[in-house]
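Researcher: Please generate the 3D structure of the following complex. Treat every line as part of one assembly.
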Amino acid sequence: GQNIDQPTEMTATEGAIVQINCTYQTSGFNGLFWYQQHAGEAPTFLSYNVLDGLEEKGRFSSFLSRSKGYSYLLLKELQMKDSASYLCAVRDSPGSNDYKLSFGAGTTVTVRA
Amino acid sequence: DAGITQSPRHKVTETGTPVTLRCHQTENHRYMYWYRQDPGHGLRLIHYSYGVKDTDKGEVSDGYSVSRSKTEDFLLTLESATSSQTSVYFCAISEPGGGYTFGSGTRLTVV
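Model: Done. Output below.
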């Protein structure tokens, strides 16, 4: 089976930095995704890592270490609109007839003024 | 953004009744997925499709069936709804190697 762990909740102050960790144990690995989900809305794509290292996209960065089964999402210069749930997802079926993702339970980030 | 719509957006149904949720896409994507989202569990895969008439089960498929008779439509059916199937259902589409684009979700309540 798949095991993807991330913290349930985090709170940070506007303008600060928050790091959301994700550890995974899956039967295979073919990429890790981060999604953002505001309350009552659908998840939206944030980032994708398939090789080790850091991917930067504006205020958001994502890091991957395949040997450690570990990723983090870094949110810089936090804004109130960043209050949302952040979902870590792993694609574990390289080359097969499906490209399904397994999701962690999500981390709810609350940004305080 | 890929065009993907789910219907209905909200539904209340009684225990034991059949329910069908529809996912419609306009982008000709091959892969389509149905997930349910519940507090504490995150998104869990129910069924997925990798082409017309090609479907397979996910991790929580019991009590659900799907059909895909044409590329643009992926239907999820609860044959006899139970209270444990009260959830938010999301459809998603993808291309090989790509991430998902999600529909807006269907909030289903079984009373």
